[in-house]
């Protein structure tokens, strides 16, 4: 299991170094499970679990599979936590809202506190895969999201009400932000992460709108930015060029409200973002939307410099049996004959179209 190096090669004298030669044997000796065994069990869960297309579970399964394939750590302690989290994330917000959290937990897991114990991992997994917390997306959060905006213009609601605002800071709960139809103003949309900086910026702004994001934008903040950014492409561009990556990720959510052409242009721009996290979320959004030309886009990301991006693109392509995706995989193999993905791609092509080999 271990080997010893003695100082000056005098055996039995002073130990200079210990070398672990057989990690599996060490874990067996200690009566513990090795990380390799846990990763293998998680891979088995991902193979066996069916996730609804476009669900939080589908995005997390793809992201987690890419991390495991690349040898990166995940947020899950073991395969049981992964399996239960995927079950929870397969719910829609409507499903989750039908029962109180404890009753829902009993229905899903026969344990009234299981959902609460899963939320840490679920939030971390969905934030990594999609840029949002599962507890907020499914309405399971015990917090009360709100958004603060200072605007020179008007906030228009779906019921016809109109609030004229002359630069004052307005704080709105999530329920109110959901009823905003538009935020009208002229000038720039500025997002600020720090509360003191927000107050200073808002006080100095003579036009436009200033939104306090508070680090990672919650659902209320996202709703406000979404309504403000609907005004024109210039404002949307301000978000994608914001120095804070959490703010830039908000643009990925805004793509859901754009027509397919504008959404594709936006997400393609974000695939070139300097932050791996932003690129990964944009790639997931393209796959989840089944966007026109998605297989060619995944082929582009197979050449990304980050292994997690490459693995995620490969996961999406290996799910497909359509000719464009198979051709992209074949072309990638021709260009990269020594790729670590070679054996998986060859197996997939051999199964679905051997003529491409």
Q: What attributes characterize this protein structure?
A:
two-stranded antiparallel ribbon; single chain; alpha+beta; 357 residues
Describe what you observe in this structure:
There is one protein chain. The protein has 357 residues and is an alpha+beta fold. 54% of the residues lie in helices and 14% in strands. It has 19 helices and seven strands. It has helices at 23-30, 35-48, 56-69, 79-89, 93-97, 101-109, 114-130, 134-137, 174-177, 195-204, 219-229, 233-240, 245-254, 260-270, 276-288, 294-301, 307-319, 323-335, 342-352, and strands at 2-6, 15-20, 146-157, 162-173, 180-185, 189-192, 209-212. The strands form two sheets. Strands 3, 4, 5, 6 and 7 form a five-stranded mixed β-sheet that branches. A hairpin with an 8-residue loop joins strand 1 and strand 2. Helix 3 (56-69) packs across helix 17 and helix 15 (276-288) packs parallel to helix 17. It starts with a strand and ends in a 5-residue tail after the last helix.
